[in-house]
Amino acid sequence: MPSVPLMAVAVFVLGAVTGSFLNVCIYRMPLEQSIITPGSRCMACGTAVCWFDNIPIISWLLLRGRCRHCAAPFSLRYPLVELLTGLLSLALFIKFGATLQYLVLFIFVAALLVVTFIDFDHQIIPDEISLPGIAIGFLCSFFLPEPSWLSSLLGIIAGWGLLALVFYGYLWLTGREGMGGGDAKLLAMMGAFLGLKAIPFIIFSSSLVGSIVGLSIMKIQGKDRHLAIPFGPYLVLGALLYIFFGPQIISWYLQLGR
User: Which of 53, 189, 191, 252 sits between 20 and 30 A of 146, alpha carbons compared?
Assistant: First the structure.
């Protein structure tokens, strides 16, 4: 059986390689392009990227972030996404070990990373991720120790229902969309994978961080309160906090009230 350090290296590499594919999804999905074909190409000269120039993180460093053929710069985001995916894969492995739960949550976290960067760039959350994610998360609940299928189902209902209520309530009161419908579907997907107990935690933590960041941006840029800020990344942050620290934070909070 492989040693723990070797397994740790393997899961990091798995994450980095997956991150390379996530970069393709982040760029192509909003443009409604295939994420399978064609292969990776330089956006400036159109030259196909050879396999040895497509090694996660390493190739970008060796090429100094530029195309081998035309020297056009490649975005720093590419190695950052690969590194982040590798680190999250490693963190999940450390927490859950070589289990089915690790694999399921790694797929879930990978989807959240795609959502985060697409929402930052385009302020949309693709249904192609959230809707299948709801079904996959619910199906996985039958094979994992937690959440139970009932908690997963209730998480879907609560996740979609609470944000949908905010969305339509704000629309009815102001005549404007205050939150995208994609946020409700994203929270429903989180409920499917993490269960009902995760929903209040995610809503509270994401709202707290989002409010602080949003108010800071408005203060710095001198914008009014109608500044459009994507909420999906803050929901993602809340979900990640719950996966790694949720029970500890909840326990600490409950102890404060005693």
Answer: 252
